[in-house]
Amino acid sequence: MPLHEPPAGPGTGRIYLVRHGETDWSLTGQHTGRTDLALTAHGEEQALALAPALAPIRFARAFTSPARRAQRTCSLAGLGASAEIEPDLAEWDYGDYEGKRSMDIVQGRPGWSVYRDGCPGGEIPPEVSARADRVIARLRTLDGNVAVFSHGQFGCSLGARWIGLPIVDAQHFELAPASISILGWNPNHAGLAVIARWNGSQGPTGRSSPAAP
Predict the structure, then answer these.
(1) pLDDT digit string (tens) for 53-77?
(2) CA distance 77 to 12
(3) Contacting residues for 114 by C-beta, under 8 A, at least 6 apart
(4) Is residue 76 part of a domain?
(5) Domain count, the chain
(6) Is the distance from CB of 45 to CB of 77 less than 8 angstroms?
(7) Which residues participate in catalysis according to the annotation?
(8) Could you report the per-residue pLDDT of 176-187, keeping only the tens digit for each?
(9) Less crowded by CB within 10 Å, the N or C end of the chain?
(10) DSSP character string of 138-155
(11) From the centroid of its chain, how far is CA 67?
(12) Secondary structure (3-state) at 51
């Protein structure tokens, strides 16, 4: 599906939410919060493949998580020179669950969901919801199209909060590595936030990475 640029101007810009490319832990399904992993070679290819998809869009601003996997994706996608680091775009702090897989966590904690239960020693859902809301409040003051480079589970949280859903409903979203989503507005209902595109794939075919654990 091609990306179509909306007219520039107040209230007409869109948020292009990009998840970083593949890492070793996205391949294995390990929760990657504060661990500052690099992209795999395939992840770099994925990030490079974003460039022709994003190049036709006129971006007024670009923001990236401080994590190097997000910054590297942003750079390879062609927006590194103009991007600003936004600490609130960081991935969920998984605390004691850092590096663990969901399938292993639920063996000792049946029914666990990061979006409902949070992580011991890390962030709880209200804290992540507040971060997402701060990002959204800032984005809604900006005119024109904005690129945002972030992570799997924080990106799902951002998408849920953009349309006013509670953070627990982010469990029904998923974002694949190097995916592009578009957050915008319903043109027929002023002020109604919508998800115009979700988890869109770009780039060459090849092995795919699992979405956020």
Answers:
(1) 999 999 999 999 999 999 999 999 9
(2) 23
(3) 31, 92, 94, 97, 102, 125, 153, 171
(4) yes
(5) 1
(6) no
(7) 20, 91
(8) 999 999 999 998
(9) N
(10) HHTT--SEEEEEE-HHHH
(11) 12
(12) helix
